[in-house]
């Protein structure tokens, strides 16, 4: 479904991605892990068309979308849950969700259906009239996920959904993500929280200094001595 070939992204002279290749099959949950500054956010931005590509290609559903403007990518069926959630805190939960269907193509795909989001996350249905800013951190992440799902995307990209949240809320966020993956949605999950991300992933890529240094199934990476030593605090 998504194929990234030899992607290079530079900020001026500095290369943030130095030839990254990866692929995601339909229905898979794939995580992109790596420490702070490894290049995860840069890759997410490049996939969304928010960061120009220096070299390489991005193929989505068999088409080269490397030059497709950011404004047209949601229409192709790629939805992003941005880092920091970016909700409109003074709008209600329902209004925030509806913003996910703002683009005409997204609206057409969703057919105005918001009920499936409430079925998936009943707490959002119960609190649909509540201002998003008054929800807990975990619930706000649920709203951000719901807003992305409203457009019925083929690929859902999550950028650091657990960043800055207390450990107990992090657990809640991963439970929420599991509910989404269980629906068969194809997910790319960029995360520093490697253990939890890999635990729910079919496949994972480890990024370091702008290159893929390791890849494997979620289980292989979780049990890999190299990953454990470098990122998970030893064996
Ligand atoms: P984080 O978890 O902090 O988001 P990351 O893995 O997502 O880390 P990136 O944010 O993609 O990493 O950063 C990759 C590299 O590119 C880092 O060295 C970073 O300093 C650099 N970088 C990121 N954004 C910019 C920018 N706008 N201008 C210049 N350099 C940047």
TrEMBL record:
Name of the protein in its database record: ABC transporter domain-containing protein
PANTHER family cross-referenced by the UniProt entry: HIGH-AFFINITY BRANCHED-CHAIN AMINO ACID TRANSPORT ATP-BINDING PROTEIN LIVF (PTHR43820)
This protein's UniProt keywords: Amino-acid transport, ATP-binding, Nucleotide-binding, Transport
Domain of life of the source: Bacteria
A GO molecular-function descriptor: ATP hydrolysis activity
Gene3D superfamilies: P-loop containing nucleotide triphosphate hydrolases
Pfam family, one: ABC_tran
Family listed: Belongs to the ABC transporter superfamily.
Native organism: Leucobacter komagatae
Stretch forming the signal peptide: none
GO biological process: L-amino acid transport
Sequence ranges assigned to domain ABC transporter in this UniProt record: 2-234
